[in-house]
Amino acid sequence: MDFIEREREATSLWWYEVALVPGLLQTQTYAQGLIDNRIPPLDEETVEERVAARMERQEILTERKPPEGPDHERVAFMEGAFASELSADAGVVSRVTERLSMIRTRALDPDETARFIERMVSQS
């Protein structure tokens, strides 16, 4: 099961990131910085290919007709520092969805988020 293929077929996407801007929302400069600052370092051609691929993925955000998956399968992608997992197991998807839903209920709305960030910036 390929994550990029599932992402392209998705009718909706939910994600939670602790420290990074999600790939679909990254600017080219931000993606370049992340991909170029790996250990061990990647060669310049590989960095350019990966940045271009990430930017190409963003097309799904502006397509007029979002795809409908043929069977409306729900999948969960969990990414860690050393491993990633894409799962269609109903139990796994249910647990991940439940946890994300709990996080979403506690999140600030956009205006409150902006005010919170402004307060943090002014205090530093």
State the gist of this model.
With about 120 residues, the protein is mainly alpha-helical.
Report on this model:
By secondary structure, this protein is mainly alpha-helical. It is built from 5 helices and 2 strands. A two-stranded antiparallel ribbon has the order 1-2. Helix 2 crosses helix 3 (about 45-55). The longest helix is centred in the last third of the chain and has 17 residues, at about 90-105. It is globular, with a radius of gyration of 17 Å. The protein starts with a helix and ends with a helix. The mean pLDDT is about 85.
> Based on helices, strands and strand pairing, what is the structural class?
mainly alpha
Average per-residue pLDDT, rounded, comes to 87
Number of strands: 2
Order of strands across the main sheet: 1-2
Biggest sheet statistics: 2 strands, antiparallel
- Please count the helical segments: 5
Tell me roughly what share of residues is in helical segments.
Answer: 40-55%
Shape: globular
- Helices and strands, in N-to-C order? HHHEEHH
Which percent range describes the beta-strand content?
5-15%
Low-confidence segments, given as residue ranges, are: none
Give the CA-CA distance, first to last residue. 45 Å
Oligomer: single chain
Report the radius of gyration as a whole number of Å. 17 Å
